UniProtKB/TrEMBL annotation:
Annotated source species: Nocardioides marinus
Leader peptide range in chain numbering: none
Molecular function GO labels: 4 iron, 4 sulfur cluster binding; metal ion binding; quinolinate synthetase A activity
Protein name: Quinolinate synthase
InterPro entries reported for this sequence: NadA (IPR003473), NadA_sf (IPR036094), Quinolinate_synth_A_type3 (IPR023515)
Gene Ontology cellular-component annotations: cytosol
Gene behind this protein: nadA
Length: 356
């Protein structure tokens, strides 16, 4: 839908008034009406790096979700202020791992006599205190674009007996471990924070190589093998391109798997006339379809599925945040406390220094 012209004019005017004092970051799942005002767009990894690229900007307006804004605050200078235009833009997957739950799991690993061997790895989609837990305990952060490298690094940390605790997305953890590191499904166990001892015996913890936290993305969890089969039956030449947050069964049936940035680069490089079904959030798939009319681009689901929290950032909220800054008021500032920031930065910097 076309954006409200009055709001577009107000957003433009506010950005012009702020000039180089403001830097607007936009994740690829953001609405078109918001993405048009982003100074840079990217996947989680690129945005984490880009956040630090404008140390002169007083304000970083983050059009994305809460954990991304927290990471931007951690990676920028203390005097730079990070703004999330709607505080309700959380991530249900990130909420599935709470620090107290993770600490209970950690204690259970000590009781089973394996904690020394466990390296915690958290997906970027987690709260700052989970990242800090990883920093404090010899672990690392990863994103969907570097999960393989991060896991390879982790498995080198404690010799051949290393185990990884992967938080909070079981699918990214399993897909990367099995498809890219060559572990078997039997090497992986799932820790359910809502069951005593994670629903695992001490022997299962001792035998496992990969302990997957029982978290998932409800948006990517909707893609199914059936739809892949139907699309292939209807068009044998179709290419199935999915995000690694999809279930393992779906990823096994896909042709290509990768982060949002990878998905965009793949479609940009695809030949005219090629046909694609994409399993990721709908704002991005629609934008790709609109900007590549010479390619057949479909959504890998029969229903509409946006990420409702990414969609919380709309043009009215962006205009309100920018106009408030023009008026000298910083609304919705995201500020991580110094102790959490210190250790989360350790885990984030380990990720940023990985090769590749
Ligand atoms: P990317 O890192 O691929 O941009 O993914 C972020 C995300 O939230 C996917 O659900
Ligand atoms: Fe979180 Fe899923 Fe939305 Fe990404 S798409 S922000 S993982 S709920």
């Amino acid at each position: 839908a076309a954006s409200d012209p009055d709001l577009v004019a107000r957003a433009q005017a506010a950005k012009e008034a702020l000039g180089s004092r403001v830097f607007v970051l936009g994740h690829h799942y953001q609405r078109d009406e918001v993405i048009q005002f982003a100074d840079v767009t990217g996947d989680s990894f690129k945005l984490a790096r880009d956040a630090a690229a404008r140390p002169d900007a007083e304000f970083i307006v983050f059009c994305g979700v809460h954990f991304m804004a927290e990471s931007a605050d951690i990676l920028t200078k203390p005097e730079q202020q990070v703004v999330l235009p709607d505080l309700a833009a959380g991530c249900s997957m990130a909420d599935m791992a709470r620090l107290t739950q993770v600490e209970a799991a950690w204690d259970a690993m000590a009781a089973a006599g394996v904690q020394q061997q466990v390296v915690p790895v958290t997906y970027m989609n987690s709260s700052a205190d989970i990242k800090a837990f990883c920093g404090r305990n010899g672990g690392v952060v990863c994103t969907s674009s570097n999960a393989q490298t991060a896991l390879e690094w982790a498995y080198e940390q404690q010799g051949p007996d290393t185990k990884v605790l992967f938080l909070p997305d079981q699918h990214l953890g399993r897909n990367t471990a099995v498809l890219q590191l060559g572990l078997s499904l039997d090497d992986c166990v799932v820790w359910d924070p809502h069951r005593p001892n994670g629903g695992l015996t001490e022997q299962q913890l001792r035998d496992a190589r990969m302990i997957l936290w029982k978290g998932h993305c409800s948006v990517h969890g909707r893609f199914s093998e059936d739809v892949v089969d139907d699309l292939r039956a209807a068009d044998p030449d179709i290419n199935i391109l999915v995000h690694p947050e999809c279930k393992h069964e779906v990823v096994l049936k896909a042709d290509l798997i990768g982060s949002t940035e990878f998905i965009i680069q793949t479609i940009e490089a695809a030949p005219a006339g090629s046909s694609w079904a994409i399993g990721t959030e709908l704002n991005l798939v629609k934008r790709l379809a609109d900007s590549h009319p010479d390619k057949k681009i479909a959504f890998l689901d029969r229903n509409v599925c946006y990420c409702s929290t990414m969609n919380r950032i709309d043009l009215p909220h962006l205009v309100w945040a920018l106009e408030s800054l023009v008026d000298g008021v910083v609304v919705n500032r995201i500020e991580v406390d110094p102790e959490t920031e210190k250790w989360a930065l350790v885990a984030l910097e380990r990720m940023l220094s990985l090769p590749g």
